[in-house]
Each structure stands twice: as structure tokens, then as C-alpha cells.
Design brief:
Blueprint lengths: L10 E10 L2 E11 L4 E5 L6 H8 L10 E3 L2 E2 L5 H7 E4 L10 H11 L6 H10 L16 H13 L5 E5 L7 H18 L2 E5 L3 H7 L2 E6 L2 E6 L1 H5 L6 H6 L5
Parallel strand pairs: 3-8, 3-9, 6-7, 7-8
Antiparallel strand pairs: 1-2, 1-4, 4-5, 9-10
């Protein structure tokens, strides 16, 4: 399967502000994510992490001229085309009844494409699942398996980026590790850009190239995770990781 090799910065967010019911949700957010990076978004509940992620693929409509994908204002891109390019994986897998193969093939069918059995096997392999899972009923999957099927289904649309909204928060430690390893492998094999909302510091230290910390809707800190979270760090991100911020 061929993925587009992007050599220019993938995302640029500039001066993004957002209100909901008259209350500020995001305040003058500026962020750059280069192609092939894994960037983690940290912050307390209600800090704007998921709102920012939803703006990136227009589940929440951002103001014009605030978010650019490969230099193009995303509000000028057909929304379905945009969402094929930016695969999103949520906290809880939104799978429908049927088999694993039914779910993986769903997106391409909407686009007029039919996946072969070999295509489905390849996509399951990318999500670190054996081919014999293809005919497994969704109802028989564990939480970690269901989340990896969700990843395989997202990959069926050949996205250039993955937007992950706390995809491991409902999983046990072993399943979290498996999903974490899967995402790392996908970045290595496909060169995908990944923006990952998480509150697990082990995920940040293992997979992230850079970290953005959101507090009250604005970027409060940014940098290399080992620097921000190191034992001698005086950064506000280290305070958050230590539980000193709420």
C-alpha cells in the first residue's frame, strides 16, 4: 500500500481561538507539527486538548485561516476528503455489529472501493492483528483488540496523519502497551504524522517527539519530552506530570 510522502510541515495552527456557549475553549493557540512527527497533547481535563484535536479535522469547525494542512487552509478542503487524510481514533472504538472484515472494509466501500481479502490481511497486520481475526465477530473482541480494529479501519482510507483522542484510556496496561507499540510501528513503517491526546506519561516518554501542554485553552509549555519531564526539570509540564496542577 502506498502512502504519500510529505516533506513539508504537516500542520500549522496559528492564533486559533474558539468559544462554546460564550465561554473560551481555546485561546490563541499556535502549534506546528512536522510530517512524520508524533506530538502528544497534555493537560488537565477541560484544558482544550480534545477540542483542538476535533478542530484539526473539522468535527468542530475552526475559524478560517487558523489551521493549515500542508499549507492549505483546512476550511477550504472538502470535509470528507479532509477526514480521509486525517484518520481519527477515539477513546472508545465506534465499531458496528458484524465481523472485523466488515468494519475494516467500511470506509473504502463508502468511497466506491472494494477491499480484497489480502487488503484486509495487510491492514490487520499493520494494526498488529493476525489474518484469522478477519471473520471474528466484533462482539467477541477484547477492548485492546477492538481499538486495534479501529486503527486498521482508519488506515483503510490511507490517511497521512492519525489523530488519537486518548485511545488507550479505557484499556488495561498490557493492551495500552500493545496499542502504543502499534502506533510506533505505523510511524516507522508508513511515516504517518500522529497527534495524540493522552494523560499517560509512559506513552509520552516512549513515543512522543514533542509535547504541547494546554492549560485553560492555551499552550503553556512545549518541547522535547525528556527535557520537559526529566528529573531536574523546572518546566510546568513536569509539575503537571507530578500531579501539582489541576
Amino acid at each position: 500500500m502506498d502512502w504519500i510522502d510529505m516533506t513539508t510541515p504537516c500542520f500549522k495552527v496559528q492564533n486559533l481561538s474558539l468559544e462554546r456557549n460564550g465561554r473560551p475553549v481555546l485561546r490563541d493557540v499556535n502549534m506546528v507539527v512536522a510530517a512524520g512527527e508524533i506530538v502528544c497533547l497534555l493537560g488537565p481535563s477541560g484544558s482544550g486538548k480534545s477540542s483542538l484535536l476535533r478542530c484539526l479535522n473539522r468535527l468542530t469547525e475552526p475559524p478560517p485561516h487558523t489551521i493549515f494542512l500542508d499549507g492549505q487552509d483546512i476550511t477550504t478542503i472538502d470535509v470528507l476528503t479532509l477526514r480521509r487524510r486525517l484518520g481519527m481514533v477515539f477513546q472508545k472504538p465506534a465499531l458496528f455489529p458484524g465481523t472485523v472484515a466488515d468494519n475494516v472494509a467500511f470506509g473504502p466501500q463508502l468511497d466506491g472501493r472494494t477491499l480484497t481479502a489480502d487488503d484486509i490481511t495487510d491492514l490487520l497486520a499493520l494494526a498488529d492483528m493476525p489474518s484469522d481475526f478477519a471473520q471474528q465477530p466484533i462482539s467477541e473482541l477484547s477492548g485492546g483488540e477492538a481499538q486495534r480494529v479501529s486503527i486498521a479501519r482508519t488506515l483503510a482510507n490511507h490517511p497521512g496523519s492519525l489523530l488519537l483522542d486518548e485511545p488507550t484510556s479505557a484499556l488495561d496496561p498490557a493492551a495500552r502497551r500493545h496499542v502504543r507499540e502499534t502506533i510506533g510501528k505505523l510511524r516507522q513503517e508508513l511515516g504517518l504524522t500522529v497527534i495524540w491526546v493522552t494523560h499517560y506519561m509512559e506513552e509520552v516518554l516512549e513515543v512522543a517527539d514533542r509535547v504541547y501542554l494546554l492549560l485553560d485553552g492555551h499552550i503553556a509549555d512545549e518541547g522535547d519530552p525528556e527535557h520537559l519531564l526529566g528529573p531536574d526539570s523546572h518546566h510546568i509540564t513536569a509539575e503537571f506530570a507530578a500531579g501539582h496542577l489541576e
